[in-house]
Structure formats: structure tokens, C-alpha cells
Specification:
Elements (H helix, E strand, L loop, with lengths): L1 H16 L1 E3 L2 E3 L1 E3 L3 E4 L5 E8 L3 E5 L4 E4 L2 E2 L9 E9 L8 E8 L4 E7 L4 E4 L2 E5 L5 E9 L4 E9 L4 E5 L4 E3 L3 E2 L2 E9 L8 E9 L2 E9 L6
Parallel strand pairs: 4-11, 14-21
Antiparallel strand pairs: 1-2, 3-5, 5-9, 6-8, 6-10, 7-9, 10-11, 12-15, 13-14, 15-19, 16-18, 16-20, 17-19, 20-21
Length: about 220
């Protein structure tokens, strides 16, 4: 139902926003012009509406797009609405990848694709930073009190067989393996017996890409 509604909306909008050149209407429109993908994500899509034949002429070699062209508008139609399927490999380069997709048509158009180098972790929230080479990265950190504590990690993975592990015996997880989709996992943190803060690393791995989550626990509670 949502797809049919979008088709109707985009077809109506394209007629309203088209320009008049020699008494002909020519227009292009995208459902989104900036596609954001996560490191383990291999597929996304964009709907593209156009009043003319078109052909995709440029994009980076780490992705593919289907279809690559429309040779003719269907007979009797004012425009065509095409689903462009974007397929990528997992991004295990450690760097964000970017591509401009160029489309040759009466009014040349294009859109952007960005694939992050990290996984889709919703909680704890991430803080973006640049490394020494100027590459954008995302750091996920949480702070726990010194007493026994339970927190929750929220994330989305795009491949079956994802895992979440802990490198400390004082941090235990209620689940450790996951199918693709959204997940929330309770994390049990034991009381800190020390007067020094301590750290643990949770590692989320999906489709060959790993993203760490740092947990800092405050010193023990002194009564």
C-alpha cells in the first residue's frame, strides 16, 4: 500500500514540478537523493521518476545498480517510475565509502550513496570523530555506576549470524547470536569491587565487520 501511494504521489509531483521546454515537459525526481548504508548492509533502493529515457553512466566499483537504463517511456505514459536496486559489498575498509551516481537524461541528474564503516548501533549513542588521516569514525561508549547494574544495547544488523561478545567476565550478555533485524540486548554489569574505574569492550560483528562498544564502570560505591 505504501509503495502504491508513493507511486501516485511521485507521479503527481513530477507533473507539478516539470518545466516547459518547447511545449514539452521534462523532469526527474528521486524518493531520496542521499542513500545512507551501514557497513554490513548490502542492499538498498531508490525510486526514480523521469519523463524521458535515461541511462546511468557513472558510479564506484564497490556497488552495482539495477536497472542501468530505460530506453523508452511506456506507450501512453507521461513518465516512468523505476525502482533502482543498489547492491554493495560489506564495507570492511575501515573508512566511509562514497559514490555519486550520474544519470544521463534530458535533464541530467544524480544522487549520492554513502556506506558507513560502522554498524547500526542505536544505544549507546555514537560520537563521530576523525582519525589522524581525516577519516570519519563513530565511537560508541557507555558509563555504568559502580554498583551492580543492568543496561540495554539496541542495534540493527543486516545479515544473519551476527554476534555480540564481551571481553570481561564482569559484563555478561543475555543473548550473543542474532538474525538480521532489530535487537535489544540486556547487559548485566557486576558491582565494581575496586576503588578504580574499569573498562570492558563489547564487540558487535555482522557480515565480517566489527564495531566495538566501550563500557566504563565507575569505582565501587563507598558507604
Amino acid at each position: 500500500m505504501k509503495t502504491k501511494f508513493f507511486f501516485s504521489l511521485i507521479c503527481c509531483t513530477i507533473l507539478l514540478t516539470s518545466c516547459n521546454v518547447n511545449d514539452e515537459h521534462h523532469s526527474t525526481m528521486f524518493s531520496k537523493q542521499n542513500v545512507l548504508m551501514y557497513a554490513d548492509q548490502e542492499e538498498d533502493s531508490v525510486f526514480f521518476a523521469c519523463t524521458d529515457p535515461w541511462k546511468i553512466t557513472a558510479y564506484e566499483d564497490w556497488l552495482t545498480i539495477d536497472p542501468l537504463e530505460l530506453k523508452a517511456i511506456p506507450s501512453g505514459a507521461v513518465n516512468s517510475v523505476t525502482k533502482l536496486t543498489i547492491t554493495t559489498t560489506a564495507n570492511n575498509t575501515g573508512k566511509m565509502r562514497k559514490s555519486i551516481v550520474e544519470i544521463n537524461t534530458f535533464q541530467p541528474a544524480g544522487f549520492y550513496i554513502q556506506q558507513y564503516s560502522w554498524l547500526n548501533i542505536n544505544m549507546p549513542g555514537g560520537v563521530s570523530e576523525k582519525d589522524g588521516d581525516g577519516n570519519m569514525k563513530m565511537n560508541f561508549r557507555a558509563v555504568a555506576p559502580g554498583m551492580q547494574h543492568v543496561t540495554t544495547v539496541y542495534f540493527t544488523v543486516y545479515k544473519d549470524g551476527a554476534t555480540l561478545t564481551s571481553n570481561a567476565d564482569w559484563v555478561t550478555l543475555e543473548e550473543s547470536t542474532f538474525d538480521k533485524g532489530e535487537h535489544e540486548v540486556k547487559v548485566n554489569i557486576a558491582a565494581n569491587p575496586s576503588e578504580e574505574e574499569r573498562k570492558a569492550i563489547l564487540t558487535l560483528t555482522s557480515n565480517g565487520v566489527s564495531t566495538p562498544i566501550e563500557i566504563t564502570q565507575r569505582p565501587k560505591v563507598v558507604e
